[in-house]
Design goal:
Blueprint: E1 11-18, E2 25-34, H1 58-71, H2 85-102, H3 105-122, H4 140-145, H5 169-172, E3 178-179, H6 180-197, H7 200-217, E4 218-219, E5 228-229, E6 232-233, E7 240-242, H8 249-267, H9 277-287, H10 297-315, H11 323-342, H12 354-376, H13 384-395, H14 399-409, H15 417-421, H16 423-434, H17 437-440
Antiparallel strand pairs: 1-2, 3-6, 4-5, 6-7
Helix pairs in contact: 1-16, 2-3, 2-6, 2-16, 6-7, 6-8, 7-8, 8-9, 8-10, 10-11, 10-12, 11-13, 12-13, 12-14, 12-16
Amino acid sequence: MTKDSSLHGTKLLAFVHYSCYSSTPRSELVFAATDGKRGRRDEPQRIGEGEMKEGFHTDTVKKLMDEFALGTGLEPILETPRRYLWTDAFAVCNFLELYAQTANEAYMSLALRLIDQVHEVLGKHRGDDSRSGWISGLDEQEGRLHPTQGGLRIGKKLRERRPKEPFQEDLEWDRDGQYFHYLTRWMHALHCASIVTGDDHFNEWAIQLAKKSHARFTYAPPSGEKKSMYWKMSIDLSYPLVPSMGHHDPLDGWITYHELQKGRAENGSGLNGLNLDAEIADMSAICEGIKWATGDPLGLGGLLVDAFRVAQLIIARELETEDLLETLLNDSLLGLKYYAQNNTLNLPAEYRLAFRELGLSIGFRALERLEELVDQKLNVFKRRHQLQYAIHALIQYKPLCEVIEKFWAEPRTQTSETWKEHLDINMVMLATSLAPDGYLSL
């Protein structure tokens, strides 16, 4: 594979990054770099105050993210903010997108403050744990310099299961620990922050997180079979809590590692020699032979997002083969055919989970952008006709996206118990579906 490490026409935009745990700036200046290749992500459009691009659901997205910030202790700052890694990864990207579209630096401040809070809360042991300090075991000063070195907790309500405690499936869903697919979402959020701010530390933290989590979540079975992965690990990553492998975890890892490698090459600094070549090779071997099709809407949406990410990496010359892109589209089609025949979209809210359905609508937003990207870059894709055919077949299911968004955006629907029970993740993922570029663009 080839990588482009050059930067063209760099501009610097400085702003003060205020820490959520101090009244003084934690990072005095963070610079947002703009280059000829990245354009929209790196330099906010300087449009009127409160004005956004046509089609952008301005008021709804702002309202959702303002309520999220207020309810979780981000703004105003609470002494014990409520942090949850999956939700917060999407939220960082949403705030970055609001900043890009409005040029309102308050949204950039919220994105950076949220990153600080996640590291300060989920990078450390729980308050009800006999252990304290950074999960990594680093002292306070070193931990702040390398906040992802020990991984990041999920943020569940209950403490993790101890090694000798019996496994209870229903209870395990509410117990803390570390999920690999949550960690890859946070790596992506950090990478997005690195792009928008031009600060390499975010990408460095993401790569450190990738290396640590990969080393602890992957393992070679005693039988001598190929490497596999644990689905859930303990808070300190010392033992597995759920030994089976998440269906899409190796795929998430492989694509995200390439994304971070792309960022590493583009910044030109080498990030202290950090690279993920060995980890990429591991994940490639684990992925071999796996069929990605699923009927789960959240998983389906993830596959469509992954397809768009792969296409962007091909254009950036981080990836060369188009085989995976075509496979992801074909497997997504299999899953969508099943989902279209067996979905629950005609049921009342009490029988549905918003965030799982919104994961699919986010995937459709990625598919829209993938269709446009392939049409614009036909000369890049050797299998352009096969890709266009697969995308066209998938686009036929796009009306599902509008059905999902419209249903969950209704104020009356948001009074349902299932919406309120998962309020934070539902609000944030609805906002992502309505304003997806902050999350989807690499």
